[in-house]
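Comment thread on ticket #2218

A.B. wrote:
> Attaching the input chain for the structure job we discussed in standup.
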Amino acid sequence: MIALAVCMYIRMGCGFRSIVNGLELFNDFLGGALGVIPSHQTIENWLLKAGIVEYLDSCNKFRGTEYSIIIDESITVGSQKLLVILAAPAQHEGKTLKHGDVEVLAMAVSSSWKAGDVEREIIKLKDKIGKTPKYIVSDNGHNLRKGAELADVPRHRDISHTIGLILEDEYKERTDFKEFMDIMNKKRLSYQLTANAYLLPPKLRTISRFMNMSKWVEWAWAILQVYDDLGESQKAAYTFVLDYKELVTELYHVMETVDVVFTKVKKEGLSHTSAKYCKDYIWINLLRKDEIAEGCKRVGRAIRRYINEECALLKSKDECHNITSDIIESTFGVYKSIQPKNKHCGITPIVLALPLYGKVTDSKKRRKIDFKEKMECVRMADIKDWKEMTLLDNWQVRRMLDLKSKKRKTA
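C.D. wrote:
> Ran it. Output below, let me know if you need it in another format.
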């Protein structure tokens, strides 16, 4: 019952009350075989107990082994930010990292994270595990970069964020690029309720726009390829793409190459072999051809420099490192899907679902979880202590208590 309820919450995204309804339905069809159905609060307590045991045990799994850490902070939730540190084997295993491949080593909450704060969290992990991580992977945030430097741990720059910055440096201030983006945004608004809406470009992201260019570049390239076969109304609506044919062609060549580099490095890791493959591919597709635009060449040269700089952290020809923090971005996405909708609640104890997520979503690991043991080795008082030491005030609870207090005084 405990395993089923916890897995329904994490694996299926059901709310606690929905789980109660589901268990009652199962119980009816099974002739009452499940027995007494627990309340929604009991199921939440089960989740928190299983989560905190998994979390507190995570550091033990890397004692005596070579490991790397992936670190990042969440967007602000109310007035709070969640810092998460994941651990993975230092040697890349030749496959894209999944949640089941990493452990949540640390979760800490603060109103802001300065470099010194990040350093202290890394030092805590060194002390708990008894060994320094071989390297850190993070985005290019100053606090994360400086924190790794203060902790004296080598740092890989996340490939997605770094290449996003390279693209931003090349295109952000270019007149033709800004004009094209502006026109696409206007067309999305003007065509969305018309017969031409089915051909609209994908929604353009405001944040991290240069990390998410592939979809709309593919859209613009596809419009160029099929333009002559479109109806007159569609041609008139999307003729603006023809006006920026040179830009679209340039961007298509760039993004086609970037996607190959991403796929190679994220799947196989960064080694001297994969680095050579990527640099050769960039040379052939972006640098060698005379007809390629200068913008393509500048981007190609910048990516090759980045790869060379990251390869400097490889100490032998056999080493293969992870240099992507995609898995931690996905972890924040998981928390975003389960966090309270009211941001005044801040970061809540439900964050303890994160250490369980990778185990529950992996069928082999899920079957090995001993929920009975986890329930027996922790008390709700332990969770209360962890909450007081780790989390900040819940503004929504404070609001409720303050209003009740004033109401009593008035009465």
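A.B. wrote:
> Thanks. Noting for the ticket: The mean pLDDT is 91.
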